[in-house]
């Protein structure tokens, strides 16, 4: 497969990256919401909502950790989004 070089200005590159980050953030936030509802459903099914209880479901524990990891990823992407947006503003001003 031949790949053609992509020639774009700094502004186009930043705009594309901001758009990609925005789409990823939207998907990750939606995934976190789904995981939170899955955690609640699992806790309700098991009748245990205290994570320190030995009867707390393993699935809920796993989902809880996954959700926390995704929240860290979202925070990092939000920071990157802010940086790229500022870079876009600089590119527009130049």
List keywords for this structure.
single chain, 94 residues, mainly alpha, 2 helices, rod-shaped
Any idea how many domains? 1
Could you give the distance between the termini?
A: 37 Å
Described by its quaternary structure, the protein is single chain
Low-pLDDT windows of residues: none
Please state the CA-atom Rg, rounded to the nearest Å: 20 Å
Could you give the count of β-strands?
A: 0
Return the average pLDDT rounded to an integer.
89
Helix content: over 70%
Question: How many helical stretches?
Answer: 2
Assign an overall shape.
rod-shaped
Structural category: mainly alpha
Order of helices and strands: HH
- Largest sheet composition: none
- The fraction of residues in strands falls at under 5%
Q: In summary, what is this structure?
A:
The protein is 78% helix and 0% strand. It contains 2 helices and no strands.
Descriptive account of the structure:
Helix content is 78%, strand content 0%. The protein has 94 residues and is mainly alpha-helical. It has one domain (10-93). Helix 1 packs antiparallel against helix 2 (58-93). The radius of gyration is 20 Å and the shape is rod-shaped.
